[in-house]
Design goal:
Length: 486
């Protein structure tokens, strides 16, 4: 155990953010560099080393959280990094981007603020990179088997790294011009600087993983031909079909999916563009959708110089405390103020968009909305609450409905889908096509980065067993596993 009295003597303290007026003028990560290191050992000492640590259950990766908390408390960063990497290929991604269901399941959180698990995690991995503890781990021998991984998001990268280390020759196919999937182009730079992806890619290259960018399976290469070329295939193409809003005026200029808006802003940071073709500069911006993607749009609009930013959510405003129907250790729906919300803007709850209004040139100018209340699980408009707000740029951040089926990948493989439109798989993550496996959002549906990495690791075990007859790779989750929610 770290500090036997730590949870009694030390209060919760989290990473410090840079002043709003400073950070909205750049695209660097919002946190003060190095602010965690002076406090993180004491924060790790708040871990109670529970007899039954429910943080393991909250995390689909099964992270060995009490163990690396103990090492962090003792400032044994090398040992902490080893324990962290035992279950997680990319802790610098999850430490920055995961909503931390492990903290919701922390036993200390029953009646006190939980351990800052996410902050401890990111400190350990940042120290590991600084100390040279993160090195390539190439296989001792090659199996002679080849694997294609379709998609380079967290699920695809995790599967590729695991299979490469198992001795298989792995090639990752990515339709974008750079590796990283939504980590690269869907996550703004201020949430995770892309240097973190770049150095992981270099580690994987040194281990032997091959990368093929600007190749879309289904369009550039026939999926059936790809299957013949490789001994096995892992589909980790994500759930990239955005949920649309079919209301009058949807066709107006200035109404865009979030995944049309965010990647262009990231391309500016990559140096590909000087100015984004879709910019919030000087405009009234409305973001439809109250989740993390919506918050990313809010923060991006602030940095582009929006005149105003309004975020709409059809659901009611969550509370600050757990509802009785969301008991510990489930992941509760709480009112969350992200770094983007700290920077300004207005948030409207229990509202629904009725239509958009444009000018004579076909550009959106107004968004008409109405307040709603839920009856029998469906939103019903409240008479007399209709109004309009200025909107010269609208981003639709209402989630995703499934994997892309227009590019031919699903039909060319001959894949079966489940009732929700995801690619169906069995207990080993195998599809109905022999040798073809699926991991991440393509099979699970829209989910979290930590689930994507867990599925990539589990699918890699299934592929390894298929190719070698047995596997020593870990499988932290089953396809049917779900988060601790109610």
């Amino acid at each position: 155990m770290a500090d036997p009295k730590g949870f009694l003597t030390t209060g919760r303290e989290v990473a410090k953010t840079r002043p709003v007026e400073e950070r909205v003028r750049d695209w660097n990560e919002v946190y003060v560099p190095g602010s965690l290191l002076p406090i993180i050992s004491k924060q790790a000492g708040r871990c109670m080393d529970c007899g039954i640590p429910f943080c393991h259950n909250g995390c689909p990766l099964g992270n060995l959280i009490p163990e690396w908390n103990d090492y962090a408390y003792r400032e044994d960063w090398t040992a902490a990094s080893e324990r962290l990497h035992a279950t997680n290929n990319f802790p610098e991604f999850t430490g920055r981007l995961c909503p931390a269901p492990c903290e919701s399941a922390c036993v200390l959180g029953i009646n006190q603020p939980p351990v800052t698990i996410k902050n401890v995690e990111v400190t350990i991995i940042d120290k590991a990179w600084d100390n040279g503890d993160v090195t390539p781990q190439p296989p001792e021998r090659l199996s002679g088997k080849t694997v294609a991984v379709i998609g380079s998001g967290p699920a695809g990268l995790a599967a590729a790294q695991q299979l490469t280390r198992a001795g298989h020759t792995v090639a990752v196919y990515e339709r974008a011009d750079r590796i990283g999937g939504l980590l690269r182009y869907g996550i703004p730079e201020f949430k995770m600087e892309k240097r973190h992806i770049n150095r992981r890619i270099e580690q994987m290259r040194a281990e032997g993983t091959k990368f093929r960018t600007e190749v879309e399976i289904g369009r550039d290469i026939d999926a059936a031909k790809l299957r013949k070329r490789y001994d096995a295939v892992v589909i980790a193409a994500g759930a990239t079909t955005s949920r649309d809003l079919k209301v009058p005026g949807r066709e107006l200029n200035g109404v865009h999916f979030a995944m049309e808006y965010l990647p262009l802003a990231n391309k500016v940071q990559e140096g590909d563009l000087t100015v984004s073709p879709i910019t919030a500069e000087g405009k009234h911006v409305v973001v439809i959708g109250g989740g993390d993607t919506g918050a990313d749009c809010v923060g991006t609009a602030h940095r582009q110089g929006a005149k105003s930013v309004t975020q709409l959510e059809i659901m009611g405003k969550p509370g600050d405390e757990r509802n009785p129907n969301q008991p510990w250790p489930t992941f509760p729906m709480l009112y969350k103020v992200t770094s983007a919300h700290e920077e300004g803007g207005e948030r409207l709850y229990s509202v629904s968009t009725t239509h958009f209004e444009g000018d004579e040139e076909g550009n959106v100018q107004w968004l008409h909305l109405v307040e709603v209340e839920f009856k029998d699980g469906r939103p019903e408009p409240k008479p007399g609450t209709e109004r309009k707000i200025p909107a010269q740029l609208v981003t639709l951040a209402m989630g995703f409905t499934g994997t892309d089926q227009e590019n031919g990948l699903v039909s060319q493989f001959g894949l079966e889908l489940d009732a929700r439109g995801n690619i169906a798989r069995d207990a080993d993550f195998a599809t109905n096509v022999p040798g073809v496996y699926v991991a991440g959002d393509a099979g699970r549906g829209q989910s979290l980065i930590v689930w994507a990495i867990a599925e990539g690791r589990s699918a890699a075990r299934g592929v390894d067993r298929y190719l070698a007859g047995a596997s020593a790779l870990p499988a932290p989750v089953k396809p049917t596993d779900r988060a601790l929610t109610v």
